[in-house]
Amino acid sequence: MTPREPAESPPGDSALAPVILGIDGGGTKTAAWLAIVGSTDPPQVIGRGSAGPSNPLAAGLPTALDNLAAAVAAAWHDAGREPCPAAAAVMAVAGAGRADMAEALLDWARQQRIAEHCEMVHDAAAVLAAGTREGWGVALIAGTGSAAIGITPEGHRHVCGGWGYRFGDEGSGFWIGREMLAAVARACDGRDGPTQLTPAMLAHFQIDHARDVNAALASAQSERNAMAALAPLVAAAADAGDAAAMRLMDRAAELLAELAVTTARSAQFDRGYPLALAGGVVCGSGALRDRLLARLADAELPPGETSLAPDPVEGCLRLAAQRL
Prior knowledge:
The chain has helices spanning 56-59, 61-79, 99-112, 123-131, 173-189, 197-205, 213-218, 223-228, 231-239, 243-266, 280-284, 286-297, 312-322; strands at residues 7-8, 19-25, 30-36, 44-51, 88-93, 118-120, 137-142, 146-151, 157-161, 275-278, 306-308. By secondary structure, it is α/β, with parallel strands linked by helices. It has two domains: 7-132 and 311-322, Nucleotidyltransferase, domain 5 (2-Layer Sandwich), CATH 3.30.420; 138-304, ATPase, nucleotide binding domain (Nucleotidyltransferase, domain 5, 2-Layer Sandwich), CATH 3.30.420.40. Strands 1-4-3-2-5-6 form a six-stranded mixed beta sheet, sandwiched between helices. It has a five-stranded mixed beta sheet with strand order 9-8-7-10-11, with helices on both faces. The longest helix is centred in the last third of the chain and has 24 residues, at 243-266.
């Protein structure tokens, strides 16, 4: 299972080729890519830009718009071109499922004239466009948050999860970080045995005592992101054989598999449906991904081909190219 890689810009004069823009905005970062459209697939990337979070529900609309603008400007700078309206732009921004937020983001795009044609799509549409040949199936996203979205060949959408960190986001980076801190607390109290997660947490936050972790979290710019940043520590401890970390990763895989299978059932997919994985936690952690794939293989409704979509912005470019 390997990611589908975008092509790089070829040598030669491409100044006359149409330029398209893809934007993928999440709770941690924003990616904006520029590409030229020619005779090859995928579109040929000529510039990449990144900035901070652009989920308006988590970061706030002003911050989200600032980061969107910064990412687009960085992409044009990387391309070595003066900014101008692209031929088409497709945006997939977390939090844009709310109609008022989607309209606010599109208003910004139109006012800034980032493209002649601007469109907002669901995160899952970008993931499936980036990770599957078919463009339909189940997109399982596990980054700072988590959700599974099924899109049928007819375009009908089915969502499972995505309720947010307060009472959802099972198996996500935030969830793993929170459960890690709970495991450390139990170990420090003596309710559970020692775990490698304790020294890992102390070193990560540069604190001497476990009970100082609350102050460390309170001083973070984003407590949610600070907790999600703990997920790689759990993966490393699980790889090293730590029992508490292994149990935690097993549970995260179980919860993510439940999201995917429930979505496939709601969409009335048969066995062997396409599955695309996206998000830093599931794409970046072999410890979690291997457990997840094992769970899915034994599920009542297993997927067929499973692919990684570490850069959903590539899917935005593919969709933008189709709008020309």
